[in-house]
Amino acid sequence: MIDMTSVSLGRSDLRVSPICLGTMTFGEQVGEPDAHAILDRALERGVNFIDTAEMYAVPAREATFGASESIIGRWLGQRPGMRQRIVLASKVAGPSRNMPWIRGGQGMTAADIVASCEGSLRRLQTDVIDLYQIHWPERHVPAFGSLYYDPAKETSATPILEQLQALAGLVKAGKVRCIGLSNETPWGVHEFVRLAEQHGLPRVATVQNPYCLLNRSWENAMDESCHRLGVSLLAYSPLGYSLLTGKYDQHAPHEPGAPQGGRIARYESVRKQRWGRPEALAAARRYNQLARDHGLTPVQLALAFCYGSWRVASTIFGVTSLAQLDENLDAWGTQLSPELLAAIDAVRWELRDPAQ
User: Fold this and answer.
1) DSSP letter (8 states) at residue 185
2) In a domain, 143, yes or no
3) How confident is the model at residue 265 (pLDDT cuts 50, 70, 90)?
4) Residues in Cβ contact with 1 at an 8 Å cutoff, skipping those fewer than 6 apart
5) Share of the chain above pLDDT 90, in %
6) Is the pLDDT of residue 145 over 70?
7) Which residues lie below 8 Å from residue 152, measured CB to CB, with a gap of 6+?
């Protein structure tokens, strides 16, 4: 077991391991027996925090909608007493991003949020979700690789207050302990907190956003906003969709000779996103070489960057094998010297955030 001191999430009473097991590979790249083995090993090694979502597995498709939650639910059902040992997080999907099987592609009304939570509870075979998050904003925001806010694209139909009231009802009913956001902006976090305080509603405890060497956009106002508001960062994609593992340093994901097991190599839809940009791979290769120059593996450098940051409460990663899980967990405790951190900043100054 790794010696990890648990951390508080925001101003809530939730305490979690500073490493979180993401499960979006369960039901697509990872079959159920292997997923259960990964969950068992994570718990054995000190991870008590598990994150999933109603739309998982990823890449999202109708046939695997809810599969990750169902796999976790059956794992819990086969292990009496396990539920009390873990902190379980899930997410309600925002308005459809070309996923008409989620609420018919409509918005996210109070009724939608409640129905989605009920579905997640059934699949997870539990009475309560410890942290229930809005997967992406109902309103239009620049996210998932989009860089600029465009008011002309605004189609919001459900006020934030209505969303908060729906989440408050779930908390009051004992179906959710705490609430959080994901893929949010500084304005969004401030508005959720302002309305919660104004109307006596539950306060968001967390924001789950990308944060890694290839995307440090969190440091452009989100870090100050959340620090001052008492909202914790759950950092996702710390390995940049495996670009920061070094496996694509010789051959790009789409080239002959590249390892084919990873999502970015396996799915063209992923390569069309921010992680598939040539600039992202070029920057990853620079960071990976920087790691080797300092006697580290690329995985150690990338994860230590998140593990050691004051900005991060818990780092979320997904894996497809026990070997990957162990490698990621073994990186805990890796220290980055001031000189190495300065070298990382120097690369960022030159290349900025290519996977923003």
Assistant:
1) -
2) yes
3) low
4) 44, 45, 46
5) 81
6) yes
7) none
β-bridge mates for residue 235, sequence order: 209, 315
Number of structural domains in the chain: 1
Give the model's pLDDT for residue 167. 98
* pLDDT tens digits, one per residue of 266-315: 666 666 678 889 999 999 999 999 999 999 999 999 999 999 999 999 99
Residues 6+ apart with CB under 8 A from 264: 241, 242, 243, 248, 253, 270, 271, 275, 276
Identity of the amino acid at 229: L
CATH code assigned at 311: 3.20.20.100
Concatenate the DSSP letters of all residues of 129-174 into one string: EEEEEESS-SS----TT-----GGG----S-HHHHHHHHHHHHHTT
| Contact in structure between 354 and 273 (CB atoms under 8 Å) | no
The full length of the chain comes to 356
**Hey, what are 107's tokens?**
């918005």
Query: Taking every pair of C-alpha atoms in the chain, what is the biggest distance, in angstroms?
Result: 57
The reply to whether 135 falls in a domain is: yes
Q: Report, as residue numbers or ranges, the catalytic residues.
A: 56
- The 10 Å Cβ neighbour count of residue 118 is 12
Return mean pLDDT, the chain. Answer: 94
The span from the CA of 119 to the CA of 221, in Å, is: 35
Residue 265 in contact with residue 225, Cβ under 8 Å?
no
Q: Could you tell me if 206 and 170 are in contact, meaning their C-beta atoms sit under 8 angstroms apart?
A: no
Q: Report how far residue 227's alpha carbon sits from residue 174's, in angstroms, rounded to the nearest whole number.
A: 28
Domain that holds residue 27: 7-245+301-334
Q: Is residue 174 part of a domain?
A: yes
Give pLDDT, residue 103.
80
Q: Which residues are within 8 A (CB) of 339 and not within 5 positions of it... i.e. 6 or more apart?
A: none
pLDDT at 14 over 90: yes
Question: What does the pLDDT look like over 315-337, one tens digit per residue?
Answer: 999 999 999 999 999 999 999 99
Q: Is residue 20 situated within a structural domain? A: yes
Question: Structure tokens of 244?
Answer: 């920061």
